[in-house]
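Hey, quick one: can you model this chain's 3D structure?
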Amino acid sequence: MGRHDKLLAQLLGGRADATVGFEAVCALLRRLGFQERTRGSHHMFRRPGVEELINLQRDGDKAKVYQVRQVRAMLVPYGLTTIEGDDA
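Sure thing. Here's the predicted structure for all 88 residues.
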């Protein structure tokens, strides 16, 4: 199980939202096919077929807890619960 798979499992499990690294969430979203746009401290992610815009901000080196919950709430309905291909 690669690092992206482990992070995805952590996100979907919802047991450690406060410990999720900001850069790791950004990398995971990019791996899931999201396009990133940065405006100031806001990192916005968009993906074709997904209506919601994901907005992430840093809280030190972690992602903000409520935003991690929003990411989880968006991933499940769209079926973005697995990563295709090999993961390093």
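One thing worth noting: The longest strand covers residues 35-39.
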